[in-house]
Fold LacI family transcriptional regulator.
Amino acid sequence: MHDVAKAAGVSTSTVSRVINNGRYIRPETRLVVERAIAELGFHRNEVARTLRPGQTANTIALVIEDPGNPFWSAITRGAEETARRNQHMLVVGSTGQDFHRERDLLRDLVSRRVDGLLVVPTAHDHRDLHTELSRRAPMVFIDRVPAGVPADSVVLDNVGGARRAVEYLLTTGHRRIGYIGGDPAVSTGSARLAGYRSALADAGLSYDPGLVSLGHHTVEAATTVAMSLLNRADPADAIFADNNRICVGVLHGTDRHDRDIAVAGFDDVELVDLLPRSVALITYDAVEIGRRAAELLFARIDGGTDEYKQLVMPTELVLRGRFGLRRPL
């Protein structure tokens, strides 16, 4: 507030009255103060006004993509367990893959003086936003890492996991393996596509862009694309889905086809054990991802100044389906 007052050439009490929509402020003075606020990126700290000097909110925040997805629910559970062990509350918000919503949510959380942030970033340049917010609260990224941002992170072995899934399809005799994925601008998507291409290259197969479809985020879209790949003149004989929601859509699409189509997917899929068929899935401990990310965050909250770490969590290829069969491959 002092910086705003200095830039506007007014007193801090005048700045306070403008922020709080006080009366008896001349329009030209209000305009000068508001311009200074915008130029300096000032945000009022809502919680700080209710806390004593040196007091914190004993709260951390988790910003995820979609609370309805079991993957993010499991991560939330792990982060909450760690927060409770550290006598903190966890608050959760979601972005719906919208950067502007993510930006506004993070700024609001920081203004309420959360002690730290666990963030699943959207597909956007985060360098300026991270520079702005990391001065006020430490930040740990989960599942994906924005390019050029120095921060702790917990990610999956996305390249290795996707490669193992496609290798399994290849060893079972399939050669025209389709790939249906989400946003290629997100690091997880690009890494899984790289694993797919690596497996094909190791098998001496060329990459066919006609078998690859990206940018899908719903079960319905994945269903439509799967049916399209299977109805081509030179159709796919197997499909790899790069996340759980897409895998559900692929299973719907293959179920409507008259041929037996092999399916592999990244992420576990609810109720897949009830299917009268086998599905190869790349699985991992999502709860542990949340725990480990929160542990890294509390290390920073406690004053840790070590070099930034990236934890790469292992994945496992399992065969599921056929009324409850579940075994590693």
In short: The CA atoms of residues 143 and 155 lie 4 Å apart. The chain is about 40% helix and 20% strand.
